[in-house]
Specification:
With 424 residues, the protein is mostly helical. Among the domains are: 159 residues; 89 residues, no CATH class. The protein is built from 28 helices and two strands. A two-stranded antiparallel sheet has the order 1-2. The radius of gyration is 27 Å and the shape is elongated. The two termini are 41 Å apart.
Amino acid sequence: MGARRQFKIITPSVPLEIVPESLRQRVSPDSSETVRGLVARALIPAEPSETLVALAYLGAEAGGTLATTARQSIKNLPERLLLPVLREPLHESVLAYCATVLKDNPEAIETIVLNSVTPDDAVAFVASTGSGRVLELIARNQVRLLRSADIVEAIYFNPNTGNSIASSVMETAVRGGLDISNIPGHEEIKTSILGTTEPDSKTQEAQGEPLDDTTFRVLAGLDEDQEVGPALFDELLREESRRKKPALREASSTGAGSDEDSGVQDLLDSELEEASPTGIKLGKEKLALGQVLREMSVAHKTRMALMGNASARAMLIRDPKRTVAMAVLRSPGLTDKEVASFAQNKSLADDVIRYIATKRDWTRNYAVRRSLVANPKCPPAAAQQLLSSLRSADLRSLTRDKEVPAYVSRAAKRLVAQKDGVGR
């Protein structure tokens, strides 16, 4: 798997002290299981806000069947009661807990991220897994973005994030002086946004042409050997737009009359227009994915390396820009099979091979170890260490391979001799 930051929040601790007095004694550990069970099933008469806090406490602290029952009761609360409560200034631990329990309820999650009391780590968790309107809402909250680099990174690394949202969030972060050094290509991203006093060719390359969300997603799904003419490309764009219509219409139909809704309607209108390949010049000839990637800016190629498919990764790992090649190794979709293929490729940059050799998650895979040892660009110390784990047949093969470094061949011969000696 690719080396990717994980935005997981541990189930927050909900203190007993925040439970309203009317229910505190009934949910406390000193209360009987029968009474606590009634609260967990939301059968004790109380105000909706009081019930939600009590359920959050039991769900976070009780454990076992009682906690499971409380979590299910939160999910079963009618939205006409739940949503108004989630808008209230509840204790931040309750909102954080609800962000995990209600992650599959779009209306509830949108309400939680709009609540100013919700802690930033909970919003980062939502931003790392959410899609559609909730990402739009998080991206519009510049106060939160400038307060939390985790939220910015979560949005950027989320494969559901559209290119326009990612670009908007990155511009907010860069202009606000936020540290984005954990994002591949951050220097090129800064250059493309802030520019330089005297624009040069490097700045122009970093900036490039804009790519709309639909175009980016279509390109990310092309195969390496798939040639695309203007007609097919337009059809793929229209298909991607049609795929997004139901979600956009659903988002547009909620909260009618609100300021947020007008923004979603604008998005819907733009997506329902006939798509066109913004920033990609197909002309009259067919264009393969490799040609399209060569026309992309460094910033676009870097995000394509993270979010594209295996075909895109196979080409971008060979990109002369170190930033792009290294971004491939951080792709969440990267497989051990791909890593093994990269490890045996002698034409890749030294940094790529060196990085693979340092990742224990990858070197646990036998194919990766075997490929690294045979690659002259693998650091000698790493190659010597990995050699001892190879099978006898592969060691003998290395002794006959004239393309491996001499020190690898000699070490392989010693190991073969030792194993043969033990076998006698």
